[in-house]
Amino acid sequence: xxxxxxxxxxxxxxxxxxxxxxxxxxxxxxxxxxxxxxxxxxxxxxxxxxxxxxxxxxxxxxxxxxxxxxxxxxxxxxxxxxxxxxxxxxxxxxxxxxxxxxxxxxxxxxxxxxxxxxxxxxxxxxxxxxxxxxxxxxxxxxxxxxxxxxxxxxxxxxxxxxxxxxxxxxxxxxxxxxxxxxxxxxxxxxxxxxxxxxxxxxxxxxxxxxxxxxxxxxxxxxxxxxxxxxxxxxxxxxxxxxxxxxxxxxxxxxxxxxxxxxxxxxxxxxxxxxxxxxxxxxxxxxxxxxxxxxxxxxxx
Amino acid sequence: xxxxxxxxxxxxxxxxxxxxxxxxxxxxxxxxxxxxxxxxxxxxxxxxxxxxxxxxxxxxxxxxxxxxxxxxxxxxxxxxxxxxxxxxxxxxxxxxxxxxxxxxxxxxxxxxxxxxxxxxxxxxxxxxxxxxxxxxxxxxxxxxxxxxxxxxxxxxxxxxxxxxxxxxxxxxxxxxxxxxxxxxxxxxxxxxxxxxxxxxxxxxxxxxxxxxxxxxxxxxxxxxxxxxxxxxxxxxxxxxxxxxxxxxxxxxxxxxxxxxxxxxxxxxxxxxxxxxxxxxxxxxxxxxxxxxxxxxxxxxxxxxxxxxxxxxxxxxxxxxxxxxxxxxxxxxxxxxxxxxxxxxxxxxxxxxxxxxxxxxxxxxxxxxxxxxxxxxxxxxxxxxxxxxxxxxxxxxxxxxxxxxxxxxxxxxxxxxxxxxxxxxxxxxxxxxxxxxxxxxxxxxxxxxxxxxxxxxxxxxxxxxxxxxxxxxxxxxxxxxxxxxxxxxxxxxxxxxxxxxxxxxxxxxxxxxxxxxxxxxxxxxxxxxxxxxxxxxxxxxxxxxxxxxxxxxxxxxxxxxxxxxxxxxxxxxxxxxxxxxxxxxxxxxxxxxxxxxxxxxxxxxxxxxxxxxxxxxxxxxxxxxxxxxxxxxxxxxxxxxxxxx
Lengths: 300, 644
Description:
heterodimer, A: 300 residues, alpha/beta, Rossmann fold, six-stranded mixed β-sheet, four-stranded antiparallel β-sheet, 31% helix, B: 644 residues, alpha+beta, 35% helix, 27% strand, elongated
């Protein structure tokens, strides 16, 4: 196998469904040991990217590489080192959790059956109930247990909290955090649960309009994206030198979300506008996401 | 391998209720057959066993095939497998191994009560049925995978499927109408699925399984992409299969006399001229031999479908032959060669009277072959359904009228138009000759109320009938030979009689089992008796005799030159095949030809004895079945290798 600097890389990935282009030349890398949050609105192409990453779907152009190898070509080899929690639990509905563990165990070189059973026990998943009769949260717990049992080097979670109540969501993230902390697993997570992923994500990418519009470390992102408020001043006004994602004018003054905040730019802005009541605030990941997707052209 | 078995086990486990149902119903059928009173339950049990055997495994094959992959794909569950370190090949193998185990398992359960009620099932039939069930499973997978993809390609698949069925059916019909219908079922040793259809079923099953493998390898969890791969493989293989079948059919049907090697049955040779009908040995091409109508001198020939040839009648000068051809039907493909002239007696060709009222019953055709124009030229004349089992008995000297015989009537038909000219209600007419005055001489072998041989002249113009001779017999009578007014008939196990239709005189002779006889061109008659071949004058006086050793039998007699009698002799061991040529008036042996026997004639006694020196009188076969003409200078000329 080739060098494995990045556990997971996407190279010029283009996915089309008929004439509709869902992903248009996407490229990025996921460093080893990082938790990579892939965000986007519904239909942005997150699940298509995940399917390509798992070798389930052949892209129109480009490739996803797992451990340096084309995921479509080397799917079988790569899947031995990858754990997957799909958007919709896809295990056969007639098999019990115990049977699923027994079915999957021989397929992997490493399989921690005890840990998987302990994880299911913590999630109150009965081992003898058919998968189709489990609750949504229990199904998610089973899929996570199956994904983590072979001690994967990459964990792919495609909107794992979809449809889960807050307790199940918390339980899933707790399991995830614990496992990631223990093993340093690389994780690719697509989700709409931005509050949930924010504490554990190292890096964030945002898909919008078939393109990757953000790809940065979360800390860096939070440093760049800021809310700036200032009072109204007579005469013409602009937010230069900031790049503005969204801007509003209110009774008390003006507010903008900027995407290239630095202290130097703030000093330049204050000096240029002469404003004395400039207020700078941090943004949550959700606010950053909204700022990005609502920005003119949807890009930052 | 463990992954394959794990998947297979899962498939079986998911549908284990099918096995349980099959076992339960089989047990019920078995109990009903043997352990429960009253007696009517036995019939119920046998019926249940039959229905179970015929229907249950079929339904299981269709149900399993349609759900093996298609259901997982439709429910989005196939990604579960592809998200594991499982190869497409392992998934395919596991899925279909599990499916096959289910199908064959239910078949095994269902076949047990059927075997108990019928006494057994042939191993070949069980194997063939198993292949058919696996084919149904694969077919169900292919069709449901196409349908469940939800793609517009399914409409294209339906169109291509209809087109394929049409052209495949047309190709099979082409084989059947050319007389090679039996190859659909009998090609090869492995019957009943050893024929073309059996091979096609096996190849189609393999092809559909290969298509499923391509679907998983190229489509994985992508239904549309999988559909494209599946359809591409299916229709590519279908096209290749059809092309192969078409090429193979063309090769088989273009069989030449040289391919068949030798004759498989006594040929029908014209009493004058050079024409002969013969059917090759089973070698042929893929075991197929048509009937060849050949000019024995030039070697030119035409191929005739065996199912469309019944015993022909020749014009006196050999310039024309007619026969009645039933239309080839699909039924004949299932019951090969039911009306062939070679090897089956006409009496076996019974067709119920209801066939007359059946609009689907094929019309008969009068086939007219012109033999005086170099290569044979064949014309067809539609004729009314006179009698479903009619055969041609005679053609008049001008080739204008043909006499046909049915089971209960004889018919005079216009050879040019096929129109019925006259009919006479008369059964058991075995042979006929047109006489110089336009009337017809009929030779009857009556069986009821007792065996009797009758010679009768019928004038179709005025309807008059004149009985010329009547000879009572014992048991089965046979017309052995005839020429002019003389006829030789076997009247029982140990007696032959020479019948003179002109005078009504009958001369009887004690006879051995052998039934060879010949009316010579000199008006004398050669008869095989117990331990000799005797030549007698019209009045019965002995002219010459050839002793035949014990253990030796007379196979056939012929007159290769005027006044020369050829006696074909053979032994039970077939080691002593030879023909002795002698002077018919003195009995002096002229020469002996080893390994040759007179080819005889498919006509036996129903056709007139060939003219002395004609090709028919010089036809022989050797121990390899090769057809050989013995030229007047003694040279042997192989007929089939001279074919053009």
